Automatic annotation (TrEMBL), chain A:
PANTHER family: BRANCHED-CHAIN AMINO ACID TRANSPORT SYSTEM PERMEASE PROTEIN LIVH, HIGH-AFFINITY BRANCHED-CHAIN AMINO ACID TRANSPORT SYSTEM PERMEASE PROTEIN LIVH. It is a multi-pass membrane protein. GO terms for molecular function: L-isoleucine transmembrane transporter activity; L-leucine transmembrane transporter activity; L-phenylalanine transmembrane transporter activity; L-valine transmembrane transporter activity. It comes from the Bacteria. The keyword Cell inner membrane applies. GO terms for biological process: D-alanine transmembrane transport; L-alanine transport; L-isoleucine import across plasma membrane. InterPro entries: ABC_transp_permease, BCAA_transport_permease. This is Branched-chain amino acid ABC transporter permease. It is found in: Cell membrane. One of its GO terms (cellular component) is plasma membrane.
TrEMBL record, chain B:
This is ABC transporter ATP-binding protein. One of its GO terms (molecular function) is ATP hydrolysis activity. PROSITE patterns: ABC_TRANSPORTER_2. Transmembrane segments: none annotated. Residues 6-253 form the ABC transporter domain. It comes from the Bacteria.
Length: 299, 279, 367
């Protein structure tokens, strides 16, 4: 029983990472129907941005939660800006191009980000110099570290903030409107370009936050760390129903739990195979996801 | 009257809360020219899409040549002998005129992948026959431009003609034309009228959605009038013209009509701009 | 290109400079001017000459002949080594071109089929002692099975789902090969036999087998693309709805493209296994899939001369720019974006017109 609860906790913890990345994936897909392959790499860039801030301000920042928050904010601003730039330079010129061209561009962007970082920081892993207190807590017989608790809390706060933003603000309303019908929005005087930029900013910033958290938690980062998590985030988004933000979070939690249990019972070396196999299975059985609506795109 | 070719009964389709087609029943006889008219939003194109399998009807049945085709795949329905054109031209823009017409012959060309890889005699026979036939259909519709060039460079009127040639190359028993006269000038409309008569002369039933009433009255043997997804009148051009229900439907919808008409014209001035089946 | 091939440092530098020069005129230069001057539109004389060369029916036989004659021009082990690598890469690019270029489906896990081919033939030959040639039917069957497994569910969905599912599939295959004992785990398989040496130097024998297979593959892929099925692929790429309205079962057609690509990839895998004699999971990572895609996109999707040139360029370039791996990939990534924005048809685009066939009736005649 203790073991079971431990697995649930670790699943939820991993799920909250996935959720932060999956949200951006889902937002961008929802609004311009683009699979942003570079999204996972924005997470990686976030980790490296955090790393840079940490190395630069090693003496000033010290450790602790406040320092983590500061580093995260800077990294979020950096990846958010990079996301906006990416959309402006690579995706916007192709908005009316065939879908294939845009997908290939996204692959190119992913490649450019990965190897851009490899050129800038070198191909070897970097070590994050930030210890968050390693105290532990016993909950229902399962062991939780403070670091896990703090990060899950930060992730939840970020998700709630995003949800409020999308549901309550003008920009959020415009985002939802554009995902329904971009042409009508243009006619109604919505500044579509600006809203898309903001969507990229928000989504990329969340990925950046997740990147910093991953760096702090795992202690090591490398330029290819975004590849698998990008795939996982997409899987989460599909499970929840791509384009649906709450669905993305739900899907991420489901995926986190599934992985946690599969690692325990099948073995960690099969974790990714299990996750991607599940993606293929899900697309076969219920391509619209748990919370997705049936689309009448084609019969 | 001759045999029933297409039998549509109580067909319905809805998108969200909107019933685009709402219990539509009508028949098409072999070799006849039938027009489907009605104010914009009456469900004409939706009905076409249901018949050809692009939408799955939520109720009712479609029978073609005695075989129930309701809800089948568009390709299966097309292969059974229904060809169509689209409201906004749907040609294969990067391919040549000839290739576009060859698409219509696809299901008839006998050739497997070994023939193609080894260039067997059967390959050459099939390809040569297809090319010759493509030329014949292009001659038939009167398409005079360079046939070996990519089609997106051709003038709009010529593209319309190629789309009809492509549909004819399917060798259909019934041809559905969705607003073929849209965007054509006066002379081109006259040629279209002539073309439709010659198509009917081949024994192919022609079902026409059209807003140009002059053309409709001229070419149709029968007219079906839709409004709000239902049939409100049916009969010869003369009978339909004087039907009070028809006049009511058009006048009642005048405001909406003006609005939608403007949109339609906007869509037509940029041919090929839209890439979705019109709902 | 891969770790083994770039590490023939013992060879004298002259041979490798010679290799580039040799292969330059042989295989690249015929289309090579287009790489420097993107003027294939035919506006300049050079451009017109180039498109004339590209459209010529003698281009293919000439390039094939040049490829077959290479050992007579330079038979150093180094040259043969990189030439085999380049040819295998050409085969992969031509196979992926069927899926991406003809049919417009983005496959990001193409290396999976390459791996399936290499591992199937490697397993059968090392564990069960089959001759390599005999493994080919099994490889084809395995590749088709893989294609069915992934294509079956995803080809019904929006095309962009295929991209990411294939990406996942590539990882599944690689990780599985890494985890299983029968595939040798992270160490992989070694001691894979060749096709036999026919009384020649063994690497030259393998070179000729590879050259013949690859030339046939290029020929067949091109012919397939011009036939009935190839037309259907392009109809689907251009407009799925219109294709359906013409009676073309778009799902089956996409399936055929995906499976054809899988078979090409699988056979390329057999050649790779024979060439390397040892295979291991890292040889089949995403980088490979991405590089093959780049060859197709940069060369020109749907254009056989373009894709072959693209593949030769991408596989031979590393020989010129050694040690700057990361820079190279960064540039590839940026180039991919730039090409999609400024020249989506690629550097040597597919011909959009239609040549009147010589000596054959074009007009008239009964149908």
């Amino acid at each position: 029983m203790d073991h079971f609860i431990q697995l649930v906790f670790s699943g939820l913890f991993v799920g909250s990472f996935y959720a932060l990345v999956a949200l951006g994936y889902s937002m961008v897909y929802g609004i311009i129907k683009l699979l942003n392959f570079a999204h996972g790499d924005l997470y990686m860039v976030g980790a490296f941005a955090g790393f840079t801030v940490l190395s630069a301000g090693a003496g000033v920042l010290g450790g602790g939660l406040l320092a983590l928050l500061a580093v995260m904010l800077v990294a979020m601003a950096a990846t958010g800006g990079l996301g906006v730039l990416l959309e402006r330079v690579a995706y916007r010129p192709l908005r009316s191009a065939p879908r294939l061209s845009v997908l290939i561009t996204a692959v190119g962007a992913s490649f450019a980000l990965e190897y851009g970082i490899a050129v800038a920081f070198g191909p070897n892993p970097e070590v994050y110099q930030m210890g968050v207190s390693d105290g532990t807590l016993n909950v229902l017989g399962a062991r939780l570290t403070y670091a896990q608790l703090a990060m899950t809390a930060i992730a939840v706060v970020l998700m709630i903030t995003l949800d409020t933003l999308v549901r309550r603000t003008r920009t959020g309303r415009a985002m939802r409107a554009i995902s329904q019908d971009p042409k009508a929005c243009l006619l109604m005087g919505v500044n579509v370009d600006r809203v898309i930029s903001r969507t990229f900013f928000l989504g990329s910033a969340l990925a950046g936050a997740a990147g910093v958290m991953a760096g702090v938690y795992y202690g090591k980062i490398d330029f290819l760390m975004g590849f698998v998590i990008g795939l996982k985030a997409f899987t989460a988004a599909v499970i929840g129903g791509i384009g649906n933000l709450r669905g993305a979070v739900l899907g991420a939690v489901v995926l986190g739990l599934l992985e946690s249990f599969s690692v325990a019972y099948i073995g960690s070396e099969w974790r990714d195979v299990f996750a991607f196999g599940f993606l293929i299975l899900f697309l076969t059985v219920r391509p619209t996801g748990l919370l997705g609506e049936r689309v009448t795109e084609r019969v | 009257m001759s045999k029933v070719l297409l039998d549509v009964r109580d067909m319905a389709v809805q998108f969200g809360g909107v019933r685009a087609v709402d219990g539509l029943t009508f028949r098409v006889h072999e070799g006849e020219v039938l027009s489907v008219i009605g104010p914009n939003g009456a469900g004409k194109t939706s009905a076409f899409n249901c018949i050809t399998g692009f939408y799955k009807p939520s109720a009712g049945s479609v029978t073609f040549g005695g075989v129930r085709v309701t809800g089948r795949r568009p390709a299966v329905i097309a292969a059974s002998g229904i060809a169509r054109t689209f409201q906004n031209l749907r040609l294969f823009g990067d391919l040549t005129v000839l290739d576009n017409v060859r698409a219509g012959m696809h299901v008839r060309i006998r050739q497997n992948f070994l023939d193609a890889m080894l260039h067997t005699p059967r390959y050459w026979r099939g390809e040569d026959a297809a090319t010759a036939e493509a030329h014949r259909w292009l001659d038939f519709v009167g398409m005079e431009h360079d046939r070996t060039a990519p089609i997106r460079n051709l003038p709009y009127g010529e593209q319309r003609r190629v789309e009809i040639a492509r549909a004819l190359a399917r060798e259909p028993r019934m041809l559905l034309l969705d607003e073929p006269a849209a965007g054509l000038n006066h002379g081109e409309k006259a040629r279209l009228l002539d073309l439709m008569r010659r198509i009917a002369g081949l024994g192919i039933a022609v079902v026409l959605i059209e807003h140009d009433m002059g053309l409709v009255m001229e070419v149709s043997e029968r007219i079906v009038v839709l409004s709000h997804g239902k049939e409100i009148a049916e009969g010869t051009p003369a009978a339909v013209r004087s039907d009070p229900a028809v006049i009511e439907a058009y006048l009642g919808a005048e405001d909406e009509e003006a609005h939608v008409e403007a949109e339609r014209i906007a869509a037509e001035t940029g041919p090929g701009g839209t890439t979705e089946v019109q709902r | 290109m891969n770790d083994e091939s770039t590490l023939r440092a013992g060879e004298e530098p002259l041979a490798y400079a010679g290799a580039v020069e040799e292969r330059g005129p042989a295989n690249v230069a015929l289309g090579g001017r287009g790489v420097a001057t993107p003027a294939a539109s035919g506006r300049t004389t050079a451009g017109r000459a180039l498109s004339g060369v590209l459209a010529s029916r003698w281009l293919g036989p000439c390039v094939a002949l040049a490829a077959l004659a290479l050992p007579y021009l330079n038979s150093s082990t180094y040259v043969i080594q990189i030439a085999v690598d380049a040819l295998i890469f050409v085969m992969l690019a031509v196979g992926l071109n069927i899926v991406v270029g003809y049919c417009g489906l983005l496959d990001l896990g193409y290396a999976a089929f390459f791996a399936i081919g290499a591992y199937t033939s490697g397993l059968l030959s090392t564990r069960f002692g089959w001759p390599l040639l005999a493994t080919i039917p099994v490889v084809v069957a395995a590749a088709v099975l893989g294609g069915l497994l992934i294509g079956g569910p995803t080809l019904r969905l929006r095309s962009d789902y295929l991209a990411i599912v294939t990406l996942g599939f590539g990882e599944i295959i690689r990780i599985t090969a890494n985890n299983l004992d029968v595939t040798g785990g992270p160490n992989g398989l070694y001691g894979i036999p060749g096709f036999g040496d026919f009384g020649l130097r063994s690497d030259i024998a393998l070179y000729w087998v590879t050259a013949v297979v690859v030339c046939l593959a290029v020929l067949f892929a091109g012919r397939l693309g011009r036939g009935r099925l190839g037309r259907a692929w392009r109809f689907v790429r251009e407009d799925e709805d219109a294709a359906e309205a013409m009676g073309i079962h778009t799902y089956k057609v996409k399936f055929a493209a995906y499976i054809a690509g899988a078979v090409f990839g699988g056979i390329a895998g057999v050649l790779f296994a024979a060439h390397q004699t040892a295979i291991s999971p890292p040889s089949f990572n995403f980088l490979w899939s991405a590089l093959i895609l780049m060859a197709v996109v940069l060369g020109g999707m749907g254009s056989t001369p373009g894709v072959v040139t693209g593949a030769l360029a991408i596989s031979l370039l590393p020989e010129l720019l050694r040690g700057a791996e990361n820079w190279r990939y960064l540039i590839f990534g940026l180039l991919l974006i730039a090409v999609m924005i400024f020249r989506p048809q690629g550097l040597l685009p597919a011909r959009t017109g239609e040549a009147r066939r010589r000596g054959r009736r074009v007009r008239g005649g009964a149908s």
